[in-house]
TrEMBL record:
Full protein name: acetate--CoA ligase
GO terms for cellular component: cytosol
Group of enzyme by EC: ligase
Encoding gene, per UniProt annotation: acsA
Record-listed E.C. numbers: 6.2.1.1
PANTHER family: ACETYL-COENZYME A SYNTHETASE, ACETYL-COENZYME A SYNTHETASE 1
InterPro entries assigned: AMP-bd_C (IPR025110), AMP-bd_C_sf (IPR045851), AMP-binding_CS (IPR020845), AMP-dep_synth/lig_dom (IPR000873), ANL_N_sf (IPR042099)
The keyword Chloroplast is assigned to this record: no
Residue ranges annotated for the AMP-dependent synthetase/ligase domain, each copy included: 57-420
């Protein structure tokens, strides 16, 4: 059985920060969360201060804030050290003449300098645009041009991808390097050495800018999703009740800051809650990740379905060699979490994997599974206290349980995007039904208020009059012993409207064959339903994925139908 609405994974014995879900909802008030921050008294705020400097005054200055390692470096930083380093960086920018509201991009692989530069920029009220290191020339140019960025922090290896003569607004190129830096660029190392450790923090309004995260749409150029300081309410609150962070936690979010998960939950949520934050650079491998978990004694681990599926594919033996007994809370985001993965996590880690749903546009988690809640494998959980979600039709009517429709969220919530840079029309589209944010995801709700993701609205398949979510077919497919990953699309068909086509990558040790295709199709037919069984199967070595690990179904569809693929800047390879 792939999705079983009756299946429950009960609550583990522990004392989570949030007790009963129902009680937390009934008594919730955002104004209580606000009391955590300085603006409560002063009316002014600064994310970098709240995430880092505040801990110095509260006796956590000597506590480890950042545990950084990659195959070449191995370092640790206290909250005080991060405070002083980010002070220095804010002075570097001040000297260059940068001011509140200007856009600075960070284009480099994970390193302590990335985090220092980000925090230092925020101290000055500069709006940060994080970029994946994998971006090529055009992707970098599009984003810098659209946002008229004036500064960028990068490394010598990535420098050639910044076409300065095509970027009239870009004045400052700061290069992080142990060696000298090219003429016309600014040396991070030299400027940091010369800068003072004391800095003037720019006190901001709650609606002042924080980040601009570019995210790709299916058509057109990427959208600059603009977030403000006020988002810290959501980051702090969800860090407490969803990540369940406590004073002694060693927390590891595996996401890169180029993806919103790597900022909201790789930087802000853990540090606003005073946790020790692990950052591991370099490439993914099961051995490397398990070593990281073991070595630091990670207690709370936030990752993505694509990673869990790869770890599952590496086999249970690869887990057994490590001592992962420090783990007490595991979470996932980015794609639907297949029930099979949840069951596997319970078996090999002895942990429930908690799915969380949210988007770049929402700035923070909205629908989640909590430590205090029963998990229904395949469901993304229930709205966080302070947020209302619903399934509505295109006219805005709420739909009854188990009816598939638009996943919508009641506006506003603290970390909601405040604009799409340069594109007010695009922004308005999300709010076309009064009172609601329309996510673009399709889902249904059950009688207990749990939400079940089906696919992006555009991905839902209509075959012989039945609406089929690609996720339930993919979840069945990955239960087949030969299947590593699966992406399912609807392919136009004169008879049936659409037929289901599955793209499949195989696990180690399996070879493509017609017999295997037939066996997989039969497996879905017998385990799920005849109409959901793929009529076509194509084997691929790899499926197209985004940098954040999402299977790009629109690309599969474009390949299949010979259509333009749209923006590919976030594709993995
Ligand atoms: C944080 C992030 C957003 C889209 C979202 C949905 C998919 C994210 C999910 C999930 C099913 C989950 N998504 N979490 N689908 N279950 N728990 O991922 O932001 O990169 O903007 O993507 O990702 O389709 O609309 P972003």
């Amino acid at each position: 059985m792939s999705i079983d609405h009756k299946e429950r994974i009960s609550v583990a014995a522990a004392s989570p920060n949030m007790g009963s879900y129902e009680e937390a909802h009934a008594s919730f008030d955002w104004s209580e969360v606000e009391k955590q921050f300085t603006w409560h008294e002063t009316g002014k705020v600064n994310m970098a201060f709240e995430a880092i400097d505040r801990h110095l005054a509260e006796g956590r200055g000597q506590k480890t804030a950042l545990l950084y390692s990659d195959p070449k470096r191995d370092e640790s930083y206290t909250f005080e050290q991060l405070s002083l380093l980010s002070n220095r960086f804010s002075n570097v920018l001040r000297k260059l003449g940068l001011a509140k509201g200007e856009r600075l991009f960070i284009f480099m692989p994970r390193s302590p300098e990335l985090y220092v530069a980000l925090l230092g920029s925020l101290k000055l009220g500069v709006v940060v645009g994080p970029l994946f290191e994998a971006f090529m020339e055009t992707a970098v140019k599009d984003r810098l041009l659209d946002s008229t960025a004036t500064a960028i922090v990068t490394t010598p290896a990535l420098l050639p991808r910044i076409k300065r003569d095509e970027l009239p607004d870009l004045k400052h190129v700061i290069v992080v390097s142990d060696e000298g830096v090219p003429e016309g660029t600014i040396s991070y190392k030299d400027e940091m050495a010369a800068a003072s450790e004391e800095a003037q923090i720019e006190w901001l309004d709650r609606e002042d800018g924080l980040l601009i995260h570019y995210t790709s749409g299916s058509t057109g150029k990427p959208k600059g999703v603009f977030h403000v300081q006020n988002a810290m309410l959501q980051h702090y609150h969800t860090g407490r009740i969803v990540l369940d962070l406590k004073e002694d936690d060693v927390y590891w979010c595996t996401a890169d800051p180029g993806w919103v998960t790597g900022t909201s939950y790789g930087i802000f949520a853990p540090w606003l809650n005073g946790a020790t934050n692990v950052v591991r650079g370099g490439r993914f491998s099961p051995q490397d990740w398990y070593t990281t978990l073991q070595r630091y004694g990670v207690t709370v681990w936030y990752s993505a379905p694509t990673a869990f599926r790869m770890l599952m594919g590496a086999g249970d033996d690869s887990v057994a060699q490590y001592d992962l007994s420090s783990l007490r809370h595991v979470l996932s985001v980015g794609e639907p979490l297949n029930p099979e993965v949840v069951r596997w996590g319970l078996k090999v880690y002895g942990q429930r994997i908690h799915d969380t749903w949210w988007m770049t546009e929402t700035g923070g988690q909205l629908i989640c599974n909590y430590p205090s809640m029963e998990i229904k494998p395949g469901s993304m959980g229930r709205p966080i206290p302070g947020v209302e979600a619903a399934i509505i039709d295109d006219a805005g009517n709420e739909l009854p349980p188990y009816r598939m429709g638009n996943l919508a969220v009641r506006t506003p919530w603290p970390s909601m995007m405040r604009k799409i840079w340069n594109n007010p029309a695009k922004y308005e589209e999300y709010f076309r039904i009064p009172g609601w944010y329309i996510s673009g995801d399709s889902a249904y709700r059950d009688e207990d208020g749990y939400f079940w993701f089906q696919g992006r609205i555009d991905d839902v398949i209509n075959t012989a009059g039945e609406r089929v979510g690609p996720f339930e077919v993919e979840s069945k497919l990955v239960e087949h012993p030969a299947v590593a990953e699966a992406g399912v699309i609807g392919k136009p068909d004169p008879m049936r409207g659409e037929i289901i086509k599955a793209f499949i990558s195989l696990r180690e040790g399996f070879e493509p064959s017609d017999e295997l295709k037939a066996d997989i199709a039969r497996f879905v037919k017998e385990g799920l339903s005849a109409h959901a069984s793929p009529r076509e199967i194509e084997f691929k070595d790899k499926l197209p994925k985004t940098r954040s690990g999402k299977i790009m179904r629109r690309v599969l569809k474009a390949w299949e139908l010979d259509l333009p693929t749209g923006d590919l800047s976030t594709i993995e390879d």
